[in-house]
Write a structure and sequence with these properties.
442 residues; Outer membrane efflux proteins (OEP); 2 domains; 4-stranded antiparallel sheet; 9 helices; disordered N terminus
């Protein structure tokens, strides 16, 4: 052996470990609270809700601006030989003379620029009602956004817990595979000694194959659950994901003395605001039938190059408009607004009743989930002890393979039940907070 070959292997191994340490990305575990905060910003549904709020605010600003003065600039240039138009241009530019033929004043050009300001003084309460409706629509959009965010938060909790449950199910099936493989090896050894029939060995091997298939399906379920969570967070569904274990997430237990009510649900606030907006629409429709009074003022500059004159003028005053008859359109709009207000009131009432029922269902679901968890923890301990005794008896030749298979199946079933019960309690408590309008995180 060459003397220089001795230190090469340790050096290469050290460099390899160093490259692995710096080249392998470290994926930090995603906590449930981080996932909740991330979905608030990343979800397209949240983005849509935010844009609806922005649109409602813009509509509110438009309604608020209706009571402010409006200023309009109007300018233009023309040439004409029409007697009426030409004579008016001559007057505006100060070029009138007694020699002008009124029937044939000739060709003139005219440039004008006018600034006109109008100010609404009275619109029968229509503008005030439209402003109130705009504010109510903004409240509706904000409450809808809060409802969308709350639903997304609960959905991310469910998918996060789905990943945990799928991984625990895979781990439970992995433990079952290892136990079944050890029992199959024991059965094969006993068969070689003549202590066990061939059909019992085959039964164990068949069950082992089935359990391995179940474990493979569980591994696929884990990846699918991870992809569901990644998609909800608007991440690459093929990316890697690491999350905290079940014991590191909040339980969201509600204190027994806390009085729960659905009144804080943002969806109810949204419907109350819809009723307010519909009521304002009724007032606006009724106000449209009343007189409208506004002040106006205008300043105009005129110039003509063909005749070489210019001039300026102004006008100001107050005008009133009163729609005396419009063919029944105003009455139809009022009836439509009244119907929509009644619809909004009925919708708010229906939603309130539905949320009361949902709250009661969520409260009972928490009680059931907590009881199921207690039962699952107890029977897992019993099933594990029973399976351990069954394995020892099988090794000693005091137990049939069918009885061992039954004990292993019960242990696997109880482990899967426990995995679902653990996540089920957290999900039920989160659903109860959602039903009561309580936040999951600050």
């Amino acid at each position: 052996m060459n003397a220089f070959q001795l230190p090469i292997r340790p050096v290469v191994m050290g460099l390899g470990l160093l490259l692995m340490a710096f080249g392998t990305p470290v994926i930090s575990a995603l906590t449930l609270e981080e996932a909740i905060r991330e979905v608030r910003e990343a979800s397209p549904r949240a983005a849509i809700a935010r844009e609806r709020v922005a649109a409602a605010r813009a509509a509110q600003r438009e309604a608020d601006a209706l009571r402010l003065p409006a200023v309009m600039l109007d300018a233009g240039y023309l040439q004409t030989d029409q007697p009426m138009r030409a004579f008016g241009t001559i007057l505006n530019t100060g070029r009138f003379s007694e020699t002008i033929d009124f029937n044939r004043p000739g060709q003139v050009d005219h440039f004008h620029a006018a600034v006109t300001a109008t100010l609404p003084l009275y619109h029968g309460g229509e503008l005030t009602a439209r402003r109130r409706a705009g504010r109510a629509e903004t409240v509706t959009a904000r409450a809808d956004e809060a409802g969308v965010i709350a639903e997304l938060e609960l959905e991310v909790v469910r998918r996060y817990l789905g990943v945990i449950a799928a991984r625990e199910a895979e781990a439970a099936l992995g433990a079952s595979v290892r136990a079944m493989r050890a029992s199959a090896e024991t059965a094969a050894a006993r068969h070689e000694k003549g202590d066990l029939l061939r059909n019992e060995v085959l039964d164990l091997e068949v069950q082992l194959a089935r359990t391995e298939d179940d474990r493979f399906a569980a591994a696929q379920a884990v990846r699918l659950a991870e992809q569901r969570l990644l998609i909800l967070l608007d991440r690459d569904p093929d990316g890697a994901m690491e999350i905290n274990p079940a014991d590191a997430i909040p339980d969201w237990a509600v204190s027994p003395g806390h009085e729960l009510t659905a009144a804080a649900r943002p969806e109810l606030r949204a419907w109350e605001a819809r009723v307010e907006a519909a009521d304002a629409a009724v007032e606006a429709s009724r106000g449209s039938r009343l007189p409208k009074v506004e002040a106006f003022a205008s300043f105009q500059y005129d110039r003509g190059w063909r005749l070489g004159g210019d001039g300026d003028s102004w006008i100001g005053g107050v005008r009133m408009q009163w729609p005396l008859f419009d063919g029944g359109r105003s009455d139809a709009r009022t009836r439509l607004a009244l119907a929509r207000r009644s619809e909004a009131q009925a919708g708010a009432r229906e939603l309130d009743l539905a949320f009361r029922l949902q709250l009661e269902e969520a409260r009972r679901a928490v009680e059931l989930a907590e009881r199921r968890l207690q039962t699952s923890e107890r029977i897992v301990e019993q099933a594990a002890e029973s399976a351990a005794i069954a394995r020892l008896r099988f090794e000693a030749g005091d137990l049939l393979a069918a009885e061992l298979l039954g004990a292993e199946a019960r242990l696997t079933e109880t482990r899967l039940r426990l995995a679902l019960a653990r996540t089920g309690v957290v999900e039920a408590r989160a659903s109860l907070r959602r039903a009561a309008g309580l936040p999951l995180i600050d």
